[in-house]
Write a structure and sequence with these properties.
Layout lengths: L14 E6 L5 H9 L6 E6 L4 H4 L5 E3 L7 H6 L5 E3 L10 H6 L3 E4 L2 H4 L1 H17 L2 H9 L15 E5 L3 H10 L5 E5 L12 H4 L2 E3 L4 H7 L2 E4 L13 H6 L4 E5 L8 H9 L3 E6 L19 E3 L8 H20 L7 E2 L2
Family: Belongs to the D-isomer specific 2-hydroxyacid dehydrogenase family.
InterPro entries: D-isomer_2_OHA_DH_cat_dom, D-isomer_DH_CS, D-isomer_DH_NAD-bd, NAD(P)-bd_dom_sf
GO molecular function: NAD binding; phosphoglycerate dehydrogenase activity
């Protein structure tokens, strides 16, 4: 049983859950709905800048897009588990959390439908770039018909950069479009993959093959996790290796892409289109030069945000709070330390 201190200094049997920042607002709404019958679980939201000042009062932290560094972790004297309301933990100092005996966990995308939703968004962005969504919008506003002439996805070669849960779901859905699928993954051993991978991917490779695959692909879709090794992996060398006139879609993390290199390859028309659900800094500046290009479309980090995925994640967060309160083992999450 967790026994935090109340605001009046008295001991209370209340487990307190902290959601960091106002973004992805439905996540806290649905978590509160799920837990409304349990008055001994308190769910709060505080602004991103206020997190360091209050984190010592909480037992569970849902980080969202707040960086939780070693200084903040040192203040989290009652913290038992730091979680993401999804899969990305690149903003959490896992080493510092481990030193302070705090668990760090993600919610696997396969349990919430996140991977499926992200795969669908990747296809949405790909089609939007190929069919020139921005130019179509302008044509409608100017009462034009029959313009622009877009491209079909049929017959294209698509490189899935990072064949994890999202990459797998993406390949399943791309196959019916009549495309050739290339994919890279660090480990292709059979015990890490679904049994139908062989029929989904036409050419498999490791990180050492990514430039070769970039040269062959008409479309590159980034699906990999952001780590120290993958920051800026789509850089000048990679983009130059891509075919002139190819397209790039990013539904993973913004910092996988080198901003200056992407901007330069859009300016030179080496890239014929860019679709992204994530950006280098979020929220992304609507006046950023990259968004001025007619062949760039962006969505506000909603690839995994669906009614189903949010309610599934809220249930898992709620269950973790109830399990912590009762002293029971955690379920539905992947602890990474």
């Amino acid at each position: 049983m967790v026994d935090p201190m109340g605001s009046n200094g008295c001991s209370r049997t209340v487990t307190r859950v902290l959601f960091c920042g106002p973004y992805w607002p439905a996540s806290i709404v649905y978590t509160r709905e799920y837990l409304h019958k349990y008055p001994f679980i308190q769910v709060d939201e505080v602004g991103l800048e206020q997190v360091p000042d209050v984190i010592q009062n909480y037992h569970i932290c849902i980080v969202k897009n707040r960086r939780i560094d070693s200084d903040i972790i040192a203040r989290a004297t009652q913290m038992k588990i730091i979680m993401q309301n999804g899969v990305g933990l690149e903003g959490v100092d896992i080493g510092a959390a481990t030193e302070h005996k705090i668990k760090v966990a993600r919610i696997p995308g396969c349990t919430t439908g996140n991977a499926v939703a992200c795969a669908e968004m990747a296809i949405y962005l790909t089609l939007g770039v190929l069919r020139k969504q921005k130019v179509m919008d302008r044509a409608v506003n100017q009462r034009e018909l029959g313009t622009p002439a877009g491209e079909t996805i049929y017959g294209k070669t698509i490189f899935v950069l990072g064949f994890g849960a999202i990459g797998y779901e993406l390949a399943k859905r791309l196959r019916v479009f009549g495309v050739k699928i290339l994919a890279t993954k660090r480990n292709w051993s059979s015990n890490t993959l679904p049994c139908d991978t062989e029929v989904l991917v036409d050419k498999k490779g490791g990180p050492e093959d990514m430039y070769e695959f970039a040269r062959e692909a008409d479309i590159v879709i980034t699906c990999m996790a952001l780590t120290n090794e993958t920051i800026g992996i789509v850089d000048k060398k990679f983009l130059t290796a891509m075919k002139k006139g190819s397209c790039l879609v990013n539904i993973a993390r913004g910092r996988l892409l080198d901003y200056k290199a992407v901007l330069s390859h859009l300016e030179s028309s080496h890239l014929s289109g860019l679709g992204m659900d994530v950006a280098w800094m979020e929220p992304f500046d609507p006046d950023d030069p990259i968004l001025k290009f007619p062949n760039v479309i962006i969505t506000p980090h909603v690839a995994g945000i669906t009614e189903y995925s949010l309610r599934r994640a809220a249930k898992i967060v709620g269950d973790v709070a109830l399990q912590l309160h009762a002293g029971e083992p955690f379920t539905g999450i992947e602890i990474v330390n």
